[in-house]
Write a structure and sequence with these properties.
Two copies of one chain form a homodimer.
Chain A lengths: L2 H13 L8 H8 L3 H17 L4 E5 L5 E5 L4 H15 L14 H4 L2 H15 L6 E5 L4 H11 L3 E4 L10 E7 L5 E7 L8 E9 L3 H12 L3 E11 L11 E10 L4 E6 L4
């Protein structure tokens, strides 16, 4: 195998499994080459990713070491994606009765969610979380892609307890529409003493996120970060303290049919 | 930029967006190289993917042409993944009260779902579908990854009609537990006259898939394929005719605590 073939294969293998450490030996076997050649290939792969802003390749020294791909999103790329998303959201045909916004096409778009998940992964990389947690339904793709980018398991809390979840712990919480709702999680899902990042599609008052924090507390799981795709800027006081949102929804003006949304410029 | 750098970058860009056609010009700009060099780079990239069985790179001739990555899974890789999955499923600690099986950790595992989605994408590639459709909740990751591999939008039917879905069409269907359940889909979700692939995590009698077929018929959408991760081999007669399942669940023996699951050898 020639060098350019090995470099291409290494990039494909690493980037299809973000944040997973691959041993150098796994490449010497697969590519039938000496460790010294593979090491040089990795240096080239690293340089490509850096120059092209396609993420970062990192080598971990030592016996348990190896190499991994980190899907870092640059500030410029983040802002471009968020501007694009805001433009999509401003389409007046999204306005529904009651001033709600139709966003399902976006929340279930795998490519947009992959890019948004990489933004969250970049932001939460240092949190050393053990899980990504969401509650069904519309936040699942975003949470899944964030989990994929961080190489973490995803836990999905359910609205009802299902037989297929085994024994569950349930809590009541106050949703965005001020109704009391139920949320439950399987006892098999998480280990006590671990850390979690909460990801959701939308935040109004923060009640659903609060519910997830409370539910995870029952499992002795610490929440080390909360990320939502869209948050409303009113009410200003949310039921959770620290969260990041990629996009702020200020207002849906049903009279003039204008949707006021802005990207988070601090990302 | 050197050749091996360009080849690496092309592989990364193509494989992060399966089945999307990239024009050659998009690469000449990004990699600051002549079209003739990029064409040669693509030939090398093609060869790498083929030799390493990492999928297929295809060039589309003509003015609207370009190049795309197709995440084809080889028969051998498919069988390896399914054997691995069956081994995971045979873990007796998965057995729940009533002979149910705990599978949430698998269904929400992004990497397993990505690989399984690529198997479905390989199988359904020629169906020329416009959408991938599922019903909440546990089938969403698998359906999302299938949609991603095929570069198609994902539509998620809901159990209840939500305000955030706008006006919806609902149907009643008979679920695996023989209860009558409701399923609804937003009128904004699909275009009449289009084609869809149905993806779900689990099939017992096929009632849920039947429900999705019936719901899509209301939208004048033709179902061109049905894929499930796990199907039970009893009842033998399902409520839908054509479907593929990756894994067959024969029996959960709650006495001896043995789970009988087999990979689909015909894939």
């Amino acid at each position: 195998m020639k060098r350019n073939e090995r470099v291409g294969a290494i990039i494909k293998i690493l980037s299809s499994r973000p944040n997973k450490v691959f041993s150098l030996n796994s490449f010497t076997d697969k590519l039938d080459s000496a460790k010294s050649s593979i090491s040089e290939d990795i240096v080239i792969a690293k340089k490509i990713m850096e120059n092209m802003k396609l993420g970062r390749i990192e080598t971990i020294p030592g016996a348990a070491g190896g190499v991994k791909y980190i899907p870092v999103t640059s500030d410029e790329e983040t802002q471009n994606l968020l501007e694009e998303l805001c433009a999509k959201l401003r389409d007046e045909s999204r306005i529904l009765a009651g001033g709600f916004l139709y966003t399902s096409d976006i929340m279930f778009d795998s490519y947009i969610m992959k890019k948004a998940g990489e933004i969250f992964a970049t932001h939460f990389l240092d949190k050393k979380a053990d899980y990504v947690v969401t509650v069904e339904t519309k936040g699942i793709p975003l949470a899944l892609m964030t989990a994929d980018a961080l190489n973490l398991p995803l836990i999905v809390a359910r609205r009802d307890s299902k037989v297929s979840e085994g024994s569950t712990v349930s809590i009541n919480y106050i949703s965005g529409t001020d109704r009391i709702q139920k949320m439950s999680m399987s006892k098999k899902a998480v280990k006590p003493g671990s850390k979690a990042i909460i990801i959701d599609d939308f935040m109004k008052g923060g009640g659903t996120s609060r519910g997830m924090v409370d539910l995870l507390t029952e499992f002795q799981v610490e929440v080390v970060g909360i990320g939502v795709l869209i948050s409303m800027n009113s009410p200003e006081k949310k039921r959770v303290d620290n969260f990041i949102s990629l996009i702020t929804l200020e207002k849906v003006d049903t009279e003039s049919r204008v949707i006021y949304v802005y990207p988070n410029k601090n990302l």
